[in-house]
Structure formats: C-alpha cells, structure tokens
UniProtKB/TrEMBL annotation:
The keyword Transferase does not apply. SUPFAM superfamilies: MFS general substrate transporter. This is MFS transporter. It is a multi-pass membrane protein. It comes from Geodermatophilus sabuli. Belongs to the major facilitator superfamily. TCR/Tet family. GO terms for molecular function: transmembrane transporter activity. Keywords: Membrane, Transmembrane, Transmembrane helix, Transport.
Amino acid sequence: MRLRGAGDLPREVRVLSVVAFVVALGFGIVAPAIPLFARSFGVGTTAVGLAVSAFAFFRFVSAFSGGSLVERLGERTVLAAGLVTVAVTTGAAGLADFFPVFLGLRAAGGVGSAMFTVAALSLLLRVSPPTHRGRAAATYQGGFILGGIAGPALGGLLTELSARLPFLLYAGFLLVAGVVGLLYLRPGAAAPPTGTPAATEAAPGPETLPLRRAFRSRVYLAALVANLGVGWVLFGVRNSLVPLYVTEELGRSVAWAGAGLLAGSLAQALGLLRSGRLADAWGRRPSLVLGTALATTSMAVLVLPPAIGAFLLSMAAFGLAASLLSSVPAALVGDVSPARGGRVVAVFQMSADLGAIAGPLVAGWLTDVASYQVAFAVSTAVLGLGLAAALAMPRSTPRAPGRAAPTARNASGRARHAP
C-alpha cells in the first residue's frame, strides 16, 4: 500500500524516535532494579509496590500541568527540561541511602516523565503532515518498543553486578537523549500545511484548540477511550496479571509467561511496520475499528477455559492490535488539534496512564474475589468500549494523499474548492 504524493517524514519525527528508543532502553534497564533496590532498604512488599507505582502516579497527576507548560514554553524546552528532571532524580535515587528519599525522588521523576511524554507527542503531531501522522506515530512508538525489548535483558545483568548501577546508567542515557533533543530538534519547528483536513467534527484553526471543544468531538473521545484500553491491558493487566495466570491457572513455568509477552512484543513491533501506513491510506476510522475489534477478541480468548495455545494466540493477536492502537489514536489527536495542543495531548496521555493504574488494581481484586476469567472479561469490556467509540466516529476520513480536493467551476470558469 504505497502512498502517492507524500514526502519523507519530518526530521523531528526521526529525532524523537531516537530519543524514544534511548529513553525506553534506559527505563528497561532500570525496571528490574527498582524492586530489588527498594527491598535493600529493609521495607516490606507494600513499600516496594509503592516505589514502583509512585512514578506512574505522579506522572499521571502532573501530565495536565505539563500540557500547560507546552502551550506556554514550547515543546522543545519542556521536553529537554523533562528529560533532565528524570535524569537528575533517577541518578540521585540510585545514590539514596534512605527509603523515603528514594521514594520522593521516584515521584519527582514521574513529573519529569510527564513533561517529556506530553511535549514529545505534541511536537510529533504538530510537525507531521496529516497524510503522514499515522506513520509518524508508528515510527515514534517503534522506538519505544525496540528500546523496551532490549532494555530489561541488559538491566537484569547489570542488577546482578550492582542494584545502583542501572539507575546511574539510565540517568546517563536520559542526559544523552536530552542533548540529542536540544541539538537536533529545530526551535520553533513549524506545523505542516493543513491542506488535507482530518475527519473531525470540529475543524480547528491554527490556534490552540480549547480542551472543552475537543471533548465535544466524537473523534477525540474515541481516541481517549481506545487509549484507556491500551493502558488498561498493554501497560497494566498484561504485565501484572498475565504472569500469575500462566503459573497459577495454566500451571506452567514463568518462562511460558515470558514467551507469551515476547510474542506480543514481537507481533506489535512487526505490526508497527504497516499500521501507520494503514491508518494514513485506509483511513483512521476503519483502522481504529480493526484495532479495537482485534484487541477485544484477543482478550476475550482468555475468558475461555485455560489453554496454553489459546494464551499464546491471545498474546500475539493483542500485539498486532496494539500496533494499530499505538498509532491510530495518536494520529486522531493530531487531526483534532493540529496546532500546539499541550493540554489536549496531556489528557490523551492521562487516559492511558489511568488505565495502567486502575487496570492492575481492578483486575487483581476481581481475581481475588472471583477468578482470572472474570478479570479478563472486565478487561475485554474495557476494550469493547473502545470498539463502540470507534464505530460511533463519523464515517468521513482523511483524503488519500496525493488526491486533490473536489473542485467545482464558478461563473468565471475558474476552479474553486468545493465546500
């Protein structure tokens, strides 16, 4: 499926993808060390969980403020400041001698992470032409996926040497990413011409789109609900519940859980090679319908009686769905708010973070009081809400790249754009 009449992706997209890879690589390196290092302070399991969740919680509650900073200061400045904040707090956390200090530094790192994430996605969507937004989002997400696959393996080896070492190395990676961003992201990068309008109920002008206006768009709401499902399952339930499901319900070793998660990650990485192009050429609505339908079906498989083959199939199918849900909703947000939309992007990011926080808690509680199947059924329903929202979107889609808008002749014989 080749797109005609489209140039290469803007340089900012490639730079942001490299930054995303470095950030994800570093985060993957430090992830195995966090619970072990927290445990070294002599605290209990609950405190260890708090050390893990503090970062995500403060990232969630500070995202909206990060969006406001983007609108005031610009994406490049906020992005660099966010990376430096996470770098300093992470490096200091690795040197901490007391658990409260370590916990506070982890929380402050979440604030910096929110700044970086909102600024990076806002810049990505603003500089990407409408005909390339799907591919731009897929390329950016691909950097995260590759870094996320490579990081944990290296992190496990480094943690064996020293639980502090991964924190210091991650801090160094973040500083490198910040320098790359400052050097190669052009100050005040201009947004592309909006000659190809997005399929949205409210076509915004060049000004920042008010958040309340975005909430009136079924397109934006569909992106939010789909992103909630991504956070709920991809970043939440899949990592917290799936390993326990494999060992306790399927009666298999942890290696089988790792195999399922790896199958999902590889399927997502492969799917990202085509998902962005599909969103740009086929249209946002059908791509989102396909992604949410595949995600809902794949999770529904786990509601069936336990079977290792069904589990592996579910993980791989959800990985393919995640490749679409990692690019299409973001492209929709760019369609709704092509100008600098810090708060619009921030709320979009918060929807995934909310799912990542609530998903493991709700699913874990349902497993305790009922069963794994009930927990997976509720997760299926959350993904099903995304499918319903996608089906409720307007049927109009962005015009195929390279195709001119329909024209009509006026009385003088000159061509004019059809309204």
